[in-house]
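Continuing the batch. This is chain 6 of the set; chains 1 through 5 are on the previous pages. Same settings as before, nothing changed between runs. Recording input and output for traceability.
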Amino acid sequence: MITENIFFIMNIIGLLAFAVVGALKGIKKGLDLLGIIVLGIMTALGGGITRDLLVNTIPYALRSPNDMGVALIGVWCAIVIFKVFNEDVSNKYIIQIPDAVGLSAFTTTGAMIAYNFDVSFFGIIILATLTGVGGGIISDILLQKTPSALTEDFYASCSIIGAIAFYLAILSNLSLEMSAVICSIVVLMIRIVAILCKWSLPKFYSEQK
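Output for chain 6:
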C-alpha cells in the first residue's frame, strides 16, 4: 500500500508539473487553445506511455481515470500562470522549476516500474530516464525543435544519476519506498543546482566545409 501511495503521489506531481511545462511552451510558441491543451497533455503523458509500452503493458495513463484529468488541471494552471505573470512568463525559471519537479517525479516512477518488472541495471536507467524526459522530447518534436534533452543543459543526465542512486539504494537493502524518495531528491537537487550553476555537458562541433 505504501509503495502504491508513493507511486500515486509521484505520478500526480509529475503529471501536473509536466502539463504546466508543456502548456507554457505552447503559449510561448503562440499556439491556439487546442494546441496548448494537446502539448500539455502529451508532455504529461508521453513519458509514462513510452515506459509502459517498453515493458509490454497497457499504458497506466490509459487505465487510470485520473491521469487525463490531472493533466488538464495542469494545463489550466499554466493558463492561470500566464494570466498572472503575463509577459514575465518568458522568464526561463517559470518553466525550468516545474520542469525540474516533473523530471524528478517521473524519473522515480520510471525506476519503480522498472524494478517491479525485474529488469537489469541498465533497464532501470533506460526506463527511468525515458519516463523523465520522454514527454519533453515529444513536445519538442511537435514544436519542430531538436529535443532540448539532447542539446541543452545538464538535463537527462540528472535522470541517469537518479536512477543509479535508486539502484544503489536497492542494493543497500533499503526499502523500495526509501529508494524512491532518494531517487526523487537526487534528481531534483542536481537539476536545481544545474540550473543555478548553468551546468552543461561538452559539445563537439565539426567544421563546415
